[in-house]
Amino acid sequence: MKKTLLIIGAGPGLSLAMARRFAREGFHIGLISRTQKKLDGYAEEFRREGFECTVAAADASDAEALKSAIDRIRKETGPVSVLLYNAVDARMKHILDEDPEDIARGFRISVGNALASVQHLLPDLKESAGAVLLTGGGTALYPVPEMGTISLGKAGIRNLAHQLHKALKKEGVFAGTLTIAGMIDTNSASHSPDV
């Protein structure tokens, strides 16, 4: 059976570059994002390139909607071998101007529902001796007050990745971060999505 990479928080930069990399290795690609029209466009691109792609729309702030979207993709692709969680509350707001409720919502998107997705997919990941990749960032180590919610979310993702690595290693599942310390830019020699 063909392996499946599922990306939650699919977008035109890093996640689509990762999807293409895995597709070249023979993986079926599953994409979840908020906007169905955007997802349909990505799926069409992949199919034109000769890759299999299945999509489902869901907001990463809603754990139940996210689980439902995961199940819709799994129904078509079969078990998921690799989860790439790339969802983040990407608001650029100074920490002193943040509303605590917005920070809690952002943390749920970045960390809480990453964990919910792993828990939901755990039987698949164990069966395939799969992997969990969580998109990290330099703000986990070097917080930026102007990126308050993002910095907190990336710190949480880093911590979650370390905990999951220890907890899942004995199950044969790898967990780690795909950490980019810098702005992703298609024109950058060091930070383009393809690199």
Textual characterization of the structure:
The protein has helices at 14-24, 36-48, 63-77, 100-127, 148-169; strands spanning 4-8, 28-33, 53-57, 82-85, 131-137, 174-180. With 195 residues, the protein is of the alpha/beta class. Strands 3-2-1-4-5-6 form a 6-stranded parallel β-sheet, with helices on both faces. Helix 3 packs parallel to helix 4 (100-127). The chain is globular and about 50 Å long.
Oligomeric state of the chains in view: single chain
User: What is the N-to-C succession of helices and strands?
Assistant: EHEHEHEHEHE
Radius of gyration of CA atoms, rounded to a whole number = 16 Å
The helix tally amounts to 5
Gross morphology is globular
- Count of distinct strands: 6
- Biggest sheet: strand arrangement: 3-2-1-4-5-6
Low-confidence stretches: none
CA-to-CA gap between the ends? 29 Å
Structural class, from helix and strand content? alpha/beta
Measured as a percent range, the helix fraction is 40-55%
The major beta sheet can be summarized as: 6 strands, parallel
Portion in strands: 15-25%
Defining key terms:
alpha/beta; six-stranded parallel sheet; 195 residues
Quickly describe the structure.
This protein has helices at 14-24, 36-48, 63-77, 100-127, 148-169; strands at 4-8, 28-33, 53-57, 82-85, 131-137, 174-180. By secondary structure, it is α/β, with parallel strands linked by helices.
